[in-house]
Write a structure and sequence with these properties.
about 35% helix, globular, 5 helices, 4-stranded antiparallel sheet, alpha+beta
Length: about 180
């Protein structure tokens, strides 16, 4: 079966991008810095608005809005992954499969990523909340405010969230939100 991606020029999308074999390499400070560089480098040539983002040790979630007339998020992910893989220290790389070795690939990222086209304002809000609550969902912290690698802090500064949002409560999401 061939997977078909939705491509809407200027669209807003939710993404899940996993590390290869779900290795816990993303929240290591030097890799956080490198991933930021990969995003900046890619966005200089191919702009995108990052509406929300969270890094978890073995994956990341984010919402992007593409420029008017542009639908090529796949190329952007390819460039981000390629930049990160080129400059990441080999000590963070997984054992390379025969298939990857044959194709000249490195073992930092899963080949594919998951995307969801944001349908409306309600869908957008639910996915932003999912992103910001994700570190709590994974048992990394008790409150979104305690997770360093999240756009939650930007939302608090903008007055869009109370600093205590998601603290001391279990937030249950619809089964279709944040599918990985």
């Amino acid at each position: 079966m061939r997977y078909r991606r939705t491509r809407i020029a200027g669209g807003t999308y939710f993404f899940t991008v996993n590390t290869y074999n779900r290795r816990h390499i993303l929240c290591i400070p030097e890799n956080v810095k490198l991933l930021r560089q990969a995003f900046r480098h890619t966005m200089q040539r191919h702009p995108v608005e990052i509406n929300a983002i969270v890094l978890i040790p073995d994956h990341l979630h984010c919402i992007w809005t593409l420029p008017e007339g542009d639908h090529n998020y796949s190329m952007r992910w390819q460039l981000i992954k390629k930049y990160f893989s080129r400059y990441c220290q080999t000590k963070y790389e997984a054992v390379i499969s025969k298939s990857r070795r044959y194709k000249g690939e490195r073992a930092f990222w899963q080949r594919k990523f998951w995307e969801h086209t944001i349908r409306d304002e309600d869908d957008y809000i639910k996915h932003i909340e999912y992103i910001h609550y994700n570190p709590v969902k994974h048992g990394l912290v008790a409150s979104p405010k305690d997770w360093e690698y999240s756009s939650f802090h930007r939302y608090v500064k903008l007055g869009l969230y109370d600093k205590m949002w998601g603290s001391g409560e279990d937030i249950i999401f619809d089964s279709n939100i944040g599918k990985e």
